[in-house]
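User: what does the whole thing look like in 3D?
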Amino acid sequence: MKVLVLNSGSSSIKYQLFRSDDWVAIASGQIGRIGEAEGDLKMEWIDADGQSQCSKDNRPIPAHQEGIDHIVDKLQEQGVLADVTELSAIGHRVVHGGPHFKHPVVVDDEVEAEIRSVIPLAPLHNPGHLAGIEVARKHFPSVPSVVVFDTAFHQTMPPVSYRYAIPEYLYTEHRIRRYGFHGTSHQYVSKRAAAMLDKPLAECNLITLHLGNGASAAAIRNGQCVDTSMGLTPLEGLVMGTRSGDIDPAVLIYLWKNLDLNAAAVSHLLNRQSGLLGICGVNDMREISHQAEEGNKRAQLAIDMTLHRLKKYIGAYYAELGEVDAIVFTGGIGENSVEIRHGACEGLKRLGIEMDEAANAERIPGERVVSTPDSEVKLLVIPTNEELEIAQQALATVS
Amino acid sequence: MKVLVLNSGSSSIKYQLFRSDDWVAIASGQIGRIGEAEGDLKMEWIDADGQSQCSKDNRPIPAHQEGIDHIVDKLQEQGVLADVTELSAIGHRVVHGGPHFKHPVVVDDEVEAEIRSVIPLAPLHNPGHLAGIEVARKHFPSVPSVVVFDTAFHQTMPPVSYRYAIPEYLYTEHRIRRYGFHGTSHQYVSKRAAAMLDKPLAECNLITLHLGNGASAAAIRNGQCVDTSMGLTPLEGLVMGTRSGDIDPAVLIYLWKNLDLNAAAVSHLLNRQSGLLGICGVNDMREISHQAEEGNKRAQLAIDMTLHRLKKYIGAYYAELGEVDAIVFTGGIGENSVEIRHGACEGLKRLGIEMDEAANAERIPGERVVSTPDSEVKLLVIPTNEELEIAQQALATVS
Ligand SMILES: Nc1ncnc2c1ncn2[C@@H]1O[C@H](COP(=O)(O)OP(=O)(O)O)[C@@H](O)[C@H]1O
Ligand SMILES: Nc1ncnc2c1ncn2[C@@H]1O[C@H](COP(=O)(O)OP(=O)(O)O)[C@@H](O)[C@H]1O
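Assistant: Here's the predicted 3D structure for the full assembly of 798 residues, as structure tokens:
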């Protein structure tokens, strides 16, 4: 049997098809520019001989409906999906589950309505997800659609972590609280970390660092999330590609009053023009490292600020947890940047954190330990796999 | 000789008069409701026999000019100030020195203009300070007026700490950065901590926690401030009496868009209706402790959130500093709340932080050590004295 994972945005659909006996991804692809004059279509798959194949195409995809049609046609045409009865489940990534969803659920009308009701909390994401969910339910009436939420893993946080120090009615009436995101990734790497530590997850205290274009940290006690750096939205926390992360809230009031920006302009500024991009004009960490090596001071500041913020979160979560078994690095930067991993752990010997610089510097793929044998806190690099986690959770939910 | 310390607000003047040979405060007082129909006048002083005296009065004080006249008359009338030639200096507290002032300075027209130029950064404070400074310069033409800034001690922070991850022009053109406040208090307790540790301040790594109605933490490396929790304004950081401290900046955008609040309303909400008050309806920690003991859950949450945020800052600054000699508690809550000090240090054994619960529970005034003899990090309670620090800095500046 197989599981299809869909990540629908407002004008795109990303997908992966997994074989559920060995969890190999036998196809993955992306449809971009839905609704525009010319859509972008890409797919990679493993053919009958076990060879990787890929195809690219451009043609108009007016709406999500045609997008799903195309995906199914293409999967069947390339022989990776015989027919729809082969699908045990469809897993949908949904960014925001609001305060309601603590676990994945099979979609019905009520679930759809609940996801719709949190659109004000995730105006950029949930509408696109809903478009994909609706079409999938129509197209595959016999296959259960399961929604897997980026927020669900963080639902174990206690009120001290998820409440903000603002008037209570903003929480009770407007649902303003910390939700946290990247939950599927934090959950996936937590499980893998437990396996690497050879310890039950329920006995592991971890700090997981998902460092990609978006970046977040999570504090995990006995396998459960107790705190995370993203908040009501993915804007809070670490320095990210184009997002500011933590900032004096009064900066927004200052911009509003003195620069005469409106809510949309301030949101754009902090979400799209800030972070690494705002500090040094570039948001790609590889390029920034390169520029810093060549002596560019703004690029160096962007790296130093990233490290400074990371170190503060490591310390904060260390204090919250009291004892830490491992710190996990994942995401494009966490998996690949020797320098960021090194810098984030530098000077933390007193906390029992000692990096094995040679192991850290090895550029090899896959899961690995980069701390010294004596380091009390293990340092782990674990490539994340949110799609696999979604597929497995979707199957578990319908089984 | 004597030093007069003035803290002028928009409708109030607080003052203290110090004898500079032994630094005893021989008089202190407050004028409130300047410009209203009826002003509030209070003074305490030590008379010729060494006895404490006090007086209260109500009469109209139309402006700062009449306020200063009153203070001088009153000090002379009670015999604590023979005449103005006894004053070596007048020290003025100024909340915001902007990026320019790293040290106290004698006021001249240029300095006044510079303080005026940062009014947009401190619209609630600097105008009141300037009113006091102008009048003092006119009234005491022969006595140097020295301004001592709440921001100055934090000016040693490196760019990684004071820059926000927002577009660079907001820093270069609009001076948007972390400044930090309560600097005079953090500086005062740092010096006292070094004395208690019997170590040169320049060799001390400290975390200083000023916990009053406003609250801030500072990280001090080798006697110099390297980070602090308040930012562009005193809104950022810890949970305070009525201020939110850290929050997802997107919450402001949400309020703006969905609750239709304007900049002034959001500022009022986060500065005046949030913090402890927002969580549990009360902003006085003594009252909150009392309610929590009686089983009030919202009061307990307010305490728990205060502790959670404090612990995160202790951990963050610990990681930044790498090694910490002492953690210092000051301010109304830091000096008096057994429970907050206990909770902030609980579970931090792994960081070498061990409280002596009996010493912590003793309700005695004055400087004291509340850690166990074995605690690697010393825990100190140090009553702050910002007025004394201002007086001493003012005298040092003119000497
Ligand atoms: N070898 C590398 N060294 C440093 N950074 C890298 C490296 N490879 C990828 N990255 C960075 O990873 C980031 C993208 O991470 P990724 O997890 O793919 O992003 P997303 O959040 O969009 O999924 C980019 O900043 C990229 O420069
Ligand atoms: N014994 C006490 N126990 C707990 N809190 C106390 C105690 N005494 C004073 N406080 C608290 O200290 C806070 C005021 O601190 P203070 O430093 O005087 O404020 P400000 O920032 O206005 O100078 C109030 O919340 C008050 O309840």
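In plain terms: DSSP finds 15 helices and 14 strands in chain B. The radius of gyration of chain B is 21 Å.
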